[in-house]
Automatic annotation (TrEMBL):
It comes from Odontella aurita. This is L domain-like protein. Its main location: membrane. It is found in: Cell membrane. GO terms for cellular component: plasma membrane. InterPro entries: DNA_repair-toleration, Leu-rich_rpt, Leu-rich_rpt_typical-subtyp, LRR_dom_sf. SMART domains: LRR_TYP (SM00369). Keywords: Cell membrane, Leucine-rich repeat, Membrane, Repeat, Signal. Pfam families: LRR_1, LRR_8. Residues 1-24 are annotated as: Disordered.
Length: 448
């Protein structure tokens, strides 16, 4: 071995031959590596993304130790993913400006990220936030009307045990992430009254256990998936109203045998109402108003024994009102709204069988003939609208038997004869009558 010069190094250990050990990975590095399984590394690399900020919070600011006291969990440990996904949800929806923070991003376990919030309408506290099952897995997220703004993070789809997710009445926008299709155990899914746009992800059809599916009050486009009735066999409430959905109604709607509320109003749905709708024997609310529906009202739609609300107003429906003369149609009816269509024929005498109805609106159609005497059998009606039709003949004296009536609209028809004085007699007529509209008819005689 040759001698070493003072201040030099042995030629066997030249600097160029030394191997520099890789720098030890930081806690953040290890966390980012683990999170790359559920979030794109590109997104995690963006220092301004909610995902990166959530990861940094867990690495640098989260004082609660992760599993087993380890600085970083094992790659396959779900504890990190759950806490991270909730943190991303918070940061992507402007969490610091939520109405109530609900203990999110506190040092406590994420199963304690909830709180009681006072509700003026209920006059009591209600619980909001994240809730867990006995295994400490989040199964319910209740964040409605809490000032959420921004977008819905795709990481929500990583909370596979979710059975309830409610963020209605916030200001969340953008597209609904396709990752929600991973929530296969979902029972109640409510994104209503937000700012979501674009099409409903087809992956939503993976929620085969869903009972309440509400996306109403957004700006969703596209069509109602034709496979929806077969994909949601347990559905009880479908709320897609107040969007810009087009296309036609699925012909097999009747397969939703457990459905209680069908609310599709204020869209651009076209075509006919399928006759299979008569198979919805549990239906209590049918709202197809303000669409572009055509054709006749299928008689089966009036065979819904439990329906208390049928609203088909604001369409282009034709034909007659399919109330059976022998009665038996819509025995539970409270609100019947057929105004703003092109319905023809006469008002069926069977209308008197709707004795429990509180509101019957047939305005703005092409109905002809006389107002039937059976109209007086509507003992519970409060609002009766027959204006802007082609009705003729006298005002039935029996109308005074509508003792609960507060508003009666008969204007812009071709009614003749005199105004029955009994309508203004609180002892024999409706005592609380506030509005009686008779303009633009052919009535004669004095005003009582």
């Amino acid at each position: 071995m040759s001698p070493v010069r003072p201040g030099g190094v042995d030629s066997a250990y030249e600097t160029s031959d030394l191997v520099t050990p890789p720098p030890e990975k930081t806690r953040l590095d290890l966390i980012l590596q683990s999170l790359s399984r559920i979030t794109s590394p590109t997104v995690l690399a963006d220092l301004h993304s909610p995902q990166r900020r959530a990861a940094e919070w867990i690495a640098d600011d989260d004082l609660r130790p992760l599993p087993d006291g380890m600085p970083v969990p094992h790659d396959d440990y779900p504890r990190l993913y759950q806490r991270y996904s909730l943190a991303v949800l918070y940061m992507s929806s402007d969490g610091p400006k939520w109405n109530e923070r609900l203990n999110f991003l506190s040092d406590s376990h994420e199963c304690d990220w909830n709180d009681g919030v006072w509700n003026d309408e209920l006059g009591d506290y209600e619980s909001k936030g994240a809730f867990c099952d006995p295994s400490m897995t989040v199964f319910d997220l209740v964040l409605y009307d809490n000032g959420l703004k921004g977008t819905l993070a795709r990481e929500v789809g990583s909370l596979h045990a979710l059975r309830g997710f409610s963020v209605f009445m916030n200001e969340l926008g953008g597209t609904i992430p396709s990752s929600v299709g991973n929530l296969r155990l979902m029972v109640r899914f409510d994104l209503g009254r937000n700012l979501f746009w674009s099409m409903m992800p087809n992956e939503c059809m993976n929620m085969i256990h869903v009972e309440e599916f509400m996306l109403d009050g957004n700006d969703l486009t596209g069509t109602i998936p034709q496979e929806l009735p077969s994909s949601f066999p347990n559905l009880r409430h479908l709320g897609l109203g107040a969007n810009t959905l087009g296309g036609s109604l699925p012909p097999n709607l009747g397969n939703l045998r457990r459905l209680k509320k069908l609310e599709l109003g204020s869209n651009r749905i076209e075509g006919r109402i399928p006759s299979s709708i008569g198979s919805l024997r549990s239906l209590t609310v049918l709202d197809l108003s303000d669409n572009r529906l055509t054709g006749e009202i299928p008689p089966e739609a009036f065979d819904l024994e439990l329906a208390s609300t049928v609203d088909l107003s604001g369409n282009a429906l034709r034909g007659t009102i399919p109330l059976r003369d022998e009665g038996g149609s819509l025995p539970s009816m409270k609100y019947l709204r057929l105004f703003g269509n092109g319905l023809r024929g006469s008002i069926p005498s069977a209308i008197g069988t709707l004795g429990d109805a509180r509101e019957i609106l047939l305005d703005d159609n092409n109905l002809r003939g006389r107002i039937p005497e059976s109209i007086g059998d509507l003992a519970s009606v409060r609002v009766l609208g027959l204006s802007r039709n082609d009705l003729t003949g006298p005002i039935p004296v029996n109308l005074a038997r509508c003792a609960e009536a507060e508003v009666i609209l008969l204007g812009e028809n071709g009614l003749t004869g005199t105004i029955p004085p009994v309508l203004f007699n609180p002892r024999e007529g409706p005592a609380d009558l506030a509005v009686l509209s008779l303009e633009e008819n052919r009535l004669t005689g004095p005003i009582p």
